[in-house]
Write a structure and sequence with these properties.
2 domains; 44% helix; alpha/beta; seven-stranded mixed β-sheet; 288 residues; 10 helices; Rossmann fold
Length: 288
């Protein structure tokens, strides 16, 4: 072997020593929920198990009956190996969009299915194709991929990665994966961004179609709208009954209305925050 060949061999061996080892395959028996953490290189990607998911029971989600039944049935069909749609839960903030996704997952698994929930952070959307490669190669498991509070700002091109992952590309979405997302925006883009494309684009119609076509990748659109005071009070009473907070209707509703007025908002999130405050003042732990 010549001197040059020896030098090249030593360089190759050195590069192998400093290169990161391949990531070990995830152990999907550790939990039924995971969080995807993308590394700078594929070898640094991780799926971290979540042993205790932050969620509420399905029966505590009030005022969203139609969306609840639709999403639950879609999730149940997917867990059974039947065709199911990607789902976009959009609308008013604090009305239970992400809570419904996690509650539907728990309900389906309580029926004997082993559906895996994988949360994907918005900033990791460009690496979604790497996660799909892992999912595609995992036999005997079905994955519900979930991105909370998904939206895209001006000049943000992450949406193109998501479009390709949902339906596009040669391989397409794996049969053992479905994607749920929540957003305050129906088309995931700010309105002024779409209007700007219509105003300044050479072909405004085509530019707008490019921006809004992402939401078309979701077969289910489930809208969440602001609740009224009756629904708001019903949520609070449901929480109090479920967690053993003993308080009369008159006292409860008077305090709840005052709480709502001081917050200047009315939603399921505000209802839960009031119940936390009420239980804390009364020295009651919120456990079921």
């Amino acid at each position: 072997m010549s001197l040059d060949e020896n030098a090249l061999l030593r360089i190759a061996e050195a590069l192998e020593r400093i290169s990161p080892p391949p990531a070990p395959p995830p152990n999907f028996d550790m939990a039924d929920a995971f969080v995807w953490h993308a590394g700078e290189q594929p070898a640094h990607d991780r799926l971290d198990p979540v042993t205790k998911v932050n969620r509420v029971d399905l029966d505590l989600l009030q005022g969203i009956d139609r969306a609840r039944e639709t999403l639950l049935e879609n999730t149940r069909r997917f867990a059974q190996g039947l065709p199911a749609n990607n789902a976009l839960l959009w609308g008013a903030r604090g009305m239970g969009k992400s809570s419904l996704v996690k509650a539907a997952h728990a309900q389906v698994n309580s029926e004997g299915h082993g559906l895996l929930l994988v949360e994907v952070l918005r900033d990791d959307i460009p690496t979604l194709h790497r996660l799909l490669s892992i999912v595609r190669e995992t036999q005997g498991k079905r994955f519900l991929m979930f991105c909370d509070d998904l939206s895209f700002d001006r000049d943000d091109t992450h949406y193109k990665s998501l479009k390709a992952a949902l339906d596009g590309g040669v391989e397409g979405r794996p049969e053992n994966a479905v994607f749920y997302a929540t957003s305050n925006r129906r088309h995931l883009m700010p309105r002024d961004m779409i209007e700007n494309e219509q105003r300044v684009g050479i072909n405004p119609g085509e530019a707008t179609e490019e921006k809004v076509s992402l939401s078309d990748r979701f077969g289910l659109w489930l809208g969440f709208h602001p609740c009224d005071q009756k629904e708001f009070l019903g949520m609070i009473r449901g929480y109090c009954d479920a967690y053993g907070v003993d308080v009369s209707d008159d006292e409860l509703y008077a305090e709840a209305i005052e709480w709502r007025q001081t917050r200047g908002a009315i939603s399921g999130r505000v209802a839960w925050q009031f119940v936390q405050d009420l239980a804390g003042r009364r020295g009651i732990a919120l456990t079921r």
